[in-house]
């Protein structure tokens, strides 16, 4: 969940997540009405997707944040701190992109075995 993806300024992660849930529920309702089928959900592993890395919620909640101290000290220190918090840092250009200045994309590390609410709360904490 990224407030930047929604075009919002600020850090209302819960508000963005709430709108995401509303959107997913609307799509699920439409799919059910049109096809009579539900999304494939396994009670243990979560939603089943075509990509195994997205088992579970498949949700990556992220924030873009300026961290000039870590930009100066190096990415290895930021990675170590994020590991302690069950988070992962990336550059703001996506998974394979690089950093731009001191802005980082920080997201939840885990997806499998956690609810969407737990993942969003990890980001907030």
Describe the overall structure.
With 125 residues, this protein is α+β, with helices and mostly antiparallel strands. It contains 4 helices and 5 strands. It has helices at 13-35, 68-73, 75-84, 116-124, and strands at residues 41-42, 46-47, 62-66, 87-91, 103-108. The strands form 2 sheets. It has a 3-stranded antiparallel β-sheet. Strands 1-2 form a two-stranded antiparallel ribbon. The chain is elongated. It starts with 12 loop residues before the first helix and ends with a helix.
Class from secondary-structure proportions = alpha+beta
Unreliable spans? none
Termini separation: 15 Å
Mean pLDDT, all residues: 79
Which overall shape is indicated by the principal axes computed on the Cα atoms?
elongated
Order of helices and strands: HEEEHHEEH
The total beta strand count reads: 5
Proportion of helical residues: 25-40%
Radius of gyration: 16 Å
Beta-strand fraction estimate: 15-25%
Question: Biggest sheet, in brief?
Answer: 3 strands, antiparallel
- What is the count of DSSP helices, taking H or I runs of 4+ residues? 4
The largest sheet has its strands arranged as 3-5-4
List the helices and strands and how they pair.
Layout: H1 13-35, E1 41-42, E2 46-47, E3 62-66, H2 68-73, H3 75-84, E4 87-91, E5 103-108, H4 116-124
Antiparallel strand pairs: 1-2, 3-5, 4-5
Structure summarized in a few sentences:
The protein is an alpha+beta fold and 125 residues long. It has helices at residues 13-35, 68-73, 75-84, 116-124, and strands at 41-42, 46-47, 62-66, 87-91, 103-108. The longest helix is centred in the N-terminal third of the chain and has 23 residues, at 13-35.
């Amino acid at each position: 969940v990224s407030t930047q993806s929604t075009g919002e300024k600020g850090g209302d992660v819960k508000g963005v997540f709430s709108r995401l849930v509303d959107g997913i529920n609307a799509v699920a309702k439409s799919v059910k009405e049109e096809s009579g089928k539900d999304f494939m959900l396994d009670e243990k592993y979560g939603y089943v997707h075509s990509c195994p890395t997205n088992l579970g919620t498949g949700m990556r909640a992220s924030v873009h944040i300026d961290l000039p101290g870590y930009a100066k000290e190096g990415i290895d220190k930021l990675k170590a701190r994020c590991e302690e918090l069950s988070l992962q840092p990336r550059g703001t250009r996506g998974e394979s992109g690089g950093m731009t200045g001191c802005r980082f994309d920080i997201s939840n590390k885990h997806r499998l075995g956690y609810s969407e609410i737990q993942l969003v709360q990890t980001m907030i904490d």
